[in-house]
Structure formats: C-alpha cells, structure tokens
Amino acid sequence: MGRPVAVVGTGIAKYGVRNDASIAELAWEAIHGALAEAGVEQKDIDIVVVGNVGGWSSEPLSSVVLLEYAGMSGKPVYRVEAACATGSAAIKAAHDAIASGEADLALVVGVERMNESPTPIVVEFIGRAGNYFWEFENFGLTFPGYYALYATAYMDKYRATEEDLCRVAVKNHYYASFNPKAHFPRKISLEQCMQSRYIAWPLKLFDSSPITDGAAAVVLASEELAKKLTDSPVWIEAIGMASDTSNLSKRPDFLVHRASLWAAERAFKKLGIEREESYKHFDFANVHDAFTIAEILAYEALGFAKWGEGYKLVREEQTYIGGLIPVNLDGGLKAKGHPIGATGVGMAVEHVRQLQQRVEKERQAPIVKGRSLAHNVGGTGHYAFITVYSLEKPRRP
Amino acid sequence: MSQREQIEEFFKQMIGFAETMKQSVGVPLVFDQKSGAALWLDQRELTLRFTISVERIRKFFEALSEGKVLATRCKETGTIYFPPQVDCPDAPGSEVEWIEMPREGELLTWTVIYTKPYSFSHYNDYTVGIARFPNGVNVLAWVRESDPGKLRVGMKVRLEVVKREPEGYLTYELVPVEEGQ
Questions:
Q1: Could you count the other beta carbons within 10 Å of the beta carbon of residue A314?
Q2: Which residues of chain A does B145 touch, with a Cβ-Cβ cutoff of 8 Å?
Q3: Number of folded domains in chain A?
Q4: Domain holding A113: CATH number?
Q5: pLDDT band at residue A396, thresholds of 50, 70 and 90?
Q6: Total domains in the fold of chain B
Q7: Inter-chain contact B10–A118, Cβ cutoff 8 Å?
Q8: Domain residues for B36?
Q9: Residue A342 and which of A23, B102, B120, B132 are 20 to 30 A apart at CA?
Q10: Which domain holds residue A89?
Q11: pLDDT-based confidence at residue B97 (cuts at 50, 70, 90)
Q12: Hey, are the CB atoms on B114 and A197 less than 8 Å from each other?
C-alpha cells in the first residue's frame, strides 16, 4: 500500500475527431491544464507515465515525442499499455512511484490519436486485441463482435432485450449532452438507437463507443506535497486489478465479466467492504461502457445488481442521478468517447472534479459519502482496473 | 460495392487529391471533410505480414489435411488444451499427447460481423460462434449460417475442417446440425 497518494491537478482535452491537432499538441492541451491546476511547473515533476496504445497512429515512441513538445525532455518517463485500460494502468504506475517513496510528484498523461488511420484499419487493430493467431487470423472478430458474444449469451439467458441495451446508450448520451468535452454532447432517443444499423449482431452502431481522439492528464502527489499544493486533494483510496484469458473461447460462459469481478473483489477487500450492494459506499461510478452490454455486465460484476438483473437497473433508471447509484455522468465511453489510452485518465479527471463538486450542475452527483468508483476494462476483459477515489485520506497500515 | 471496394475507392480518392496538392502547393495535404483541418497524407506505406512459429504444433496443421481437428492433453494432469499447447503449466516438465476433438458440440453464443476489419473486408458478412464440446473444451470459429435468427443457444453444431476461400487454406468451422438428422 505504501504512502497515501493524492490527485492535485487535472486536465482534459476535448474528445472527438481531433484532426486539428497532432498527438503531442493534443497531449499538451491536457498536460498544460493539469500542471496549471496543480500550480506546479514542468521542472517540479519527478516522473511521467504515459498511457498510449498506438498502432493506428504514427509515433511509436509517443511518450518521448509528447514530453519533448511539453518541454520536459530529460525527465524519467515510460509508456504503459493495458489495452483500453491503459490510462488506469498509467495511473497505477505513477501511484506506485509515489506510494513507494521513489517520487513525490508525478504526471500521468493518457492520449490517443485514433483518427490518424481510416476506420477499417482501426477496426482491424482493435479486432486484433484478443488472441491474434487463434481468434483473429481465421475468424476476423471485431471489438463489437467480442462483446456481441457476451450480449447474445446474456440476452438469451436473462431475457434482456435490445431496448435494454439501448437504454444504456440513451442514459449516457443524456449526461454527455451536459459535458462540453464529450465526443457526442447530445441526447439520443431510444428509437434512434433501435433504428441504427447492426455492426455485430445483436449490437448496433449506437450500442458502440466511437473512434475518438483525446487526451487527459493528472498530477499525483505525496501527502506532504499535496497539503502544500491544495486544500481539497482527492485521494486514490484503493486500486484492484485483474486479467482474464486472451482467447474468449477459454472463458467458461459469457454471462459473467470475470476480470471485472476479480478486480472488484480485490479493490473491495482493500476497502473492507462487501461486493454485494457495493453501491451503498459510493456517490457515483464510471463503468467501462465500450458497448452497452459491457455497462450491464459491469453492474453485476461490481455488485450494483444481482447476477442476471443488471439490465433491470437501467430499465428502472436506477443509474441516473437520484437512483441507486449514478453511473457515467460524463457520458461514459459510449458518448464522451473512448480514446483508448486516455480513457482511464479521463475517468480520473471526472472523479476528481465530481468529488470536488465542480462539474456542470446537470450532471453533478450529490456528494455525500465522498467516495467514487472508476471501472476500466482492457480488451474484452483481458485486463480490468477498479480505482477508488476519495475525499478522505486513506488509512494505511 | 463490397466493404473492400469502398475502402479502396476511399484511398484512391485521397491519394489522387494529395497528388493534385503536391503539384499545386508542393506537399501532400488533404483536408478533413468535416472540420477542414489540414492533414499530411503519409508518403510511407507499410505492409504488415507476420511469420508466426507453429513448429511445436505442426501436428495440428498436418491433421487438418486429414480432416481432423486436434487438441493436446497433459499426460500428468489430463488437462485438455485448445488451442493446442505443448507445455503443461500445471505440471511443468510433463509432456502432452495429441488427441482428436469430438465432432459434435453445442452452440454457446454467436455474432454476425457486418462492419469488418480491413483484412476481412473482402468477405461477405460472416457469423462467429463459440461451441462447447463434450470434453469440456470451447471452440471459436465461423458458423455456417448467415441468419442469426436461425441459431439458438444449445443447438448442436459439427466441427468440420473446411477450405477457406478465396485464400484456399484449411481451417475449421462450426456447422449447425439439422433437427432430426
């Protein structure tokens, strides 16, 4: 566990098709914001961790490129990768550097420029993110395809409907409409979602998160520095991680998102809380809604709903503000967008600002418990991260 | 127009535009259709084609030509591996033996891929499913049925070696078994 770690500065670039900016320029928008908010300069930073997946974008050593642009060449830096959970992995790495005493001030940057390649190439790269040789080479799965395998099995077993899936999209677009940084800051209707074309049956275009460019950054600090820099630090209270098989065929069923379940169990053990009805302990949550079915599976894995009843939460609007637990108040991956390497860092930005009650009022969660949960999946449950943010300094043994 | 033809047409137009720009302003600029942002069209092109070692699992590919789909089994623990692997992580040092996969399994789940990856864009829409076999092993493969409505969880499927066209190589497929057959 080590020393307590606080977030003392946040920055986020507008998510969307960002053909107006190179990867370094886009990263700088977020870095600049985070440093300014923390009230620190580049020279104060001890270590930088960059979350960027790449492949679809041109710079293979993106971390070094964006550091040079940000006037930080020479600083210790490395890039981490955990597929769509890359941003959460970057936060974990920087957290550990501070917790261990190796650093006092760390900068985490998540950035992705997916639109440097045309859509079919991006679809190919994401489709390869599973087991390339045994599941992509011969069978050409896509990312919606992998999640569709979960959706088919889940809907058959529990009688959830395509409308239920679309309700997730409607909710997340609703909150995105109040988030100017979102890729799609607009509401959609259930009919619009239901009428969108199938991309991987039974999933439709509006069940799917978009191909997004974006960047987000946070400055992490040790307790001593955090107290000097801010009156309202947000602490990283616990991180739980897990993985699952690369081959989907090696998973026993497609009803339980195992990596999420295991990551949650590990995080909750650190918090000393039960998984069942875990929502009681949080003011709000972000869950990894790369596809609508993923949000429903997450409700169950995280203990917000009983097994097989996740879809009822969204049917009964229990994950809107005022319900059991508001989920994805920034629009989620679905409507805020999913710039792969930036997503987990973008969640951190959202959680800090929500807990400090400074997001747009229409999407501000009531902050009572002072604690929130961010769930970030890599691949199709190949990785999972649960990061718990808190206004209260964590008690460390 | 197939998805492949649409993509090729898109590339052709973009390259054509960049050529015109090279002649007029000297550099390969293209413009974002929505925002008008200037983009440099990369003048370097890379083909990715890997050579992947299958030396230790050659038997699997040799068996395909006999119409068989093989798995491996750890001699010490009895664990069956599919995709086949030659090492037993539960019993380091133990050997595996090659066994034939059962012919008939039950469909667990499926999807139909409409929006395809670039390297699959020349195929018609295809169905991918996962079936469970009596030896407890799951297999993911194409399912020979393009209408998702005709499939159901638990239906019997046969594991068949097939030739994948137009590439003309052997792989395996899940074939729904007609009721009463």
A1: 27
A2: none
A3: 1
A4: 3.40.47.10
A5: low
A6: 3
A7: yes
A8: 3-40
A9: B120
A10: 5-118+211-229
A11: very high
A12: yes
